[in-house]
Structure formats: C-alpha cells, structure tokens
Amino acid sequence: MATAPIEPPQRLVSSLSGDQDGREWLTALPTLVQHQLDAWDLTLERVHAPGGRSSLLALVHQQDGTPAALKFPVPGRASAHEAAALEIWDGSGAVRLLRSDDKTGALLLERLQAGVSLRSLPEAKALLEAAGTVRRLWVAPSTPHPFETLAGRTTQATEALRTAEELTPTAAPLVDEARELRRTLPTTSDEEFLLHGAFRQGKVLAGDRSPWLVIGPSPVVGERAYDLAALVLDRFEDLMAGSGASAATRRRVTKLADSLDVDRDRLRDWTLYRAVNTAVRELATGDRQRGELLLEFAAWL
C-alpha cells in the first residue's frame, strides 16, 4: 500500500504541458501507480524527484523488503520497447528488469543509485567507463525483433533538416551535409546490433551488483557508431571551454573509435549528423545558444 502521496514531479508535468494525450495520462497516473503497487504487492517509499521528462519513477520495496524502482514511461515515446531490450540484456551492462506490465507500461527495475552517474567522474574517467559499459549492450537482436531500425528512426529528422536553413541560414553547408548523411548512413552498413539509442553518461548509474549500469534505453537496431556518436557529443560544452577544443574534438572521435574498434570516418559522420540534428531541435525550441554551440562543434568535425 502507498505510504506517501503519488504526485508527478514538476519536471515531468512541464514536459507534457503542450501534449493533450500526455496531460490525460498525467491525470490518470496516480491511479495507475496505486493499481500497480497493489497488483505487485509493493510499498511506496517516495516518488523520485526531480526525475525525468519522459517517465515517472517511484522508489518502492517488494514484499520481502528488497528495494526496487517502479517506472512508468510516457506512452508512445521512444521507450516503447524498453522492456524488450532489458530482457535481452538480462542485467549485462544494464539495469535488471524484474517485472513488466504490457497493459500499463509499468516496469519494475532493480534499485540503482539515482544520484550517482558517470557525470560525477572526471571527464576522461567517465568516457572510459562509459565506453566499457555501452559495448556490453551491443548484441545481436533476435530475428524477428520488435525494434525500429536506424533508417526508420532518422526518417523523422528529414523534415526538420529540410527547414533548418530558415532557422540558421549561415549553417546551410552543415545542414546539407547532415541531410546527405541521414540519407546514406543507414543504408551503407551491414552491422545489426541492438543499441541503447539514447546513450549518455547521465544514463549510467552506480549499482550494487555492478559498478555501473545503464538505464533508460530507447532501443534501436543498427551500427555501433550511432550509439558512440552520442558519447562523442556528451559534455561537449566542457570540451569547447578548454584550449585547443577543435583538435580535442577530433582526438575524442579517434580515441573512442579505436578503443571500441569502430570505423573512425563513420563515427565522425554519425556524430556530425547527430550534432546538427540536435542543434536544429534546440534552435526550433528557442535555445539558440545551445543550438549554435552544437553547430560550432559539428563544424570542427
């Protein structure tokens, strides 16, 4: 039974403020959470706050007293097949899935240390640990599998890139290159690995069973360079603040590619594409400073 009020954190509420379906889900969420607590005989400790923008996480205890985390992803978001990916990894490099409910989308996960991520480490150490963790996730998916492919996932960026020059005309050459990379990259690789899809240092948390475990996948099937590109971009602001930032950026690509046996050129290409694509999103939502920084980072590649 619940021992504390079930109230969605403000960060989650704000992220869904412009989404009618999301607001309806938020209204029903306290009832859904209470139902799941009762169905799985869980005791609520507290709702984790500030939490994320795409899910509610409640810290709970199982019937035998073992701590766990009850997660409710926002319906229809990229985490739709999170449970399927976690089942495949079965705790190897990732948080362990204890139970799932297809109807409500609820996931019961092992409890990790939510306040301790790789971002708490110095950059060089964090990159090393992140690379060692993400490589454990790169396994062959079953056939058939429920996951989208990189070709499908990147299709949604086509229209945004097409209109990007209206947001930042001076970046037209970069946008053109990103548009071409979006067209060619997904069709010119034979790799078919299950990828995290949204990998970054903040999604690698300290655990008891293993020093570092990944959470929050947005699983997709494709080549490893796509996941690794997100790691090149991680904490890019710190990299840009240092001396010789453009050379350091290229060294980061080379170091990560070589350490994980990934083609350097393809890692560079996926990083440029993901940097420009993210920059366009930031510009479209009004964060011009971050968008322009990402474009500058992309230009160094």
UniProtKB/TrEMBL annotation:
Q: Which domain of life is it from?
A: Bacteria
Keywords, A to Z? Kinase, Transferase
User: Is Transferase set as a keyword in this record?
Assistant: yes
Q: Which Pfam families does the entry link to?
A: APH_6_hur
Q: Which SUPFAM superfamilies match?
A: Protein kinase-like (PK-like)
Give yes or no: UniProt keyword Transferase. yes
Q: Name one GO biological process term.
A: secondary metabolic process
Enumerate the InterPro entries for this protein: Kinase-like_dom_sf, NH2Glyco/OHUrea_AB-resist_kin
Report the GO molecular function annotations. Answer: kinase activity; phosphotransferase activity, alcohol group as acceptor
Q: What is this protein called?
A: Kinase
